[in-house]
Design goal:
One of its GO terms (molecular function) is DNA binding. InterPro entries: LysR_HTH_N, LysR_subst-bd, WH-like_DNA-bd_sf, WH_DNA-bd_sf. The structure is a single chain. 41% of the residues lie in helices and 24% in strands. The protein is an alpha/beta fold and 302 residues long. The strands form four sheets. It has a five-stranded mixed β-sheet with strand order 4-3-5-12-6. A three-stranded antiparallel β-sheet has the order 10-7-11.
């Protein structure tokens, strides 16, 4: 039976939330420069206050949440976020607390490091935790409050997620230097449909790339599928087919030193939206707004 919540402290909630996220009391203690016993005692007091077991201690394997612990974690994380937001509203210059943000896997190498650097330099008191996420994880992680905001593409994430467009990215075709089409100044979808496609195979991204052909009533010849952006680029550069992409690295060399040729697709009007996903019907916090603003500036300047 649950007891009075009056004895629960914010530190207890913070230690519990971070332990759930890290999966270890020892890791929490190290991150917060505390003794492990202090974290363990604090969480034990929290469990006593709420009247149920929240974590299961596993010898040499950290901790996992109970069913009640998983439910309590989402509420506790929301409480801490609300406290941080209340403090941040008092100042227009600084941000404190923790922002949990996500970045879609293929966008992460291009935008995540610079966003992290710029935000931490501008707001040194803000703890920024950014993780890579697949498109299929975004809705769940937002609705479970594991993430507050995600930099991603404008796919359909369901009614519980709102997408805010920040920029558009035109698609292009990429070839190895020896490919017969590499010497052209542009290429058509009809030409591409006759060639071997090396497909970037990442859930919703896959559907998007294939929809470009469907919209033109064409069927591509899929030769190979890979989940890695760089594997796709390397296979293409070595002459095993072409690919369609939208992200543009700073140079055309692959990791193994081969060169790609990029060509515009003349008859594709498809533009892939890039923006942020947030929880629908909920205003983003001041921290999330700072993240969105930084992403907009990076995207519009690239």
């Amino acid at each position: 039976m649950a007891k009075s919540a009056s004895s629960i402290t914010l530190n207890q909630l913070r230690y519990f939330v971070r332990t759930v996220e890290l999966g270890s009391m020892t890791a929490t203690a190290e991150e917060l420069f505390l003794a492990q016993s202090a974290v363990s005692t604090s969480i034990a007091q929290l469990e006593h206050a709420v009247g149920c077991k929240l974590l299961i201690r596993q010898r040499a394997r950290g901790v996992v949440t109970t069913d009640q612990g998983s439910t309590f974690y989402r509420s506790a994380a929301g409480i801490l976020a609300a406290v941080d937001e209340a403090v941040n509203q008092l100042s227009s210059e600084t941000l404190t607390g923790t922002l949990t943000a996500g970045c879609f896997t293929t966008l992460a190498p291009f935008y995540l490091p610079v966003a992290f650097e710029n935000l931490t330099n501008t707001y040194p008191e803000l703890s920024l935790r950014i993780s890579e996420v697949a498109s299929e994880q975004i809705s769940q992680k937002l609705t479970r409050r594991e993430l507050e905001v995600v930099l991603t593409y404008g796919f359909d994430y369901g009614p519980e997620v709102e997408f805010i467009q920040l920029a558009e990215a035109p698609v292009y075709a990429a070839f190895g230097e020896s490919h017969p089409l590499a010497n052209q100044s542009e290429v058509s979808l009809e030409q591409l449909a006759r060639e071997s496609l090396i497909l970037l195979d990442l859930g919703k991204s896959t559907n998007y790339f294939l929809s470009i052909f469907r919209d033109a009533h064409l069927s591509p010849r899929i030769h190979q599928r890979f989940e890695s952006f760089e594997v796709v680029r390397s296979m293409v550069a070595r002459g095993h087919g072409y690919t369609i992409l939208n992200q543009r690295p700073a140079h055309d060399l692959t990791n193994d030193g081969h060169r790609l040729i990029r060509l515009p697709i003349t008859d594709s009007r498809s533009l892939l939206q890039i923006g942020v996903a947030i929880r629908a019907n909920e205003s983003p916090s001041k921290k999330a707004q700072a993240f969105i603003k930084e992403c907009r500036e990076i995207l519009t300047s690239s």
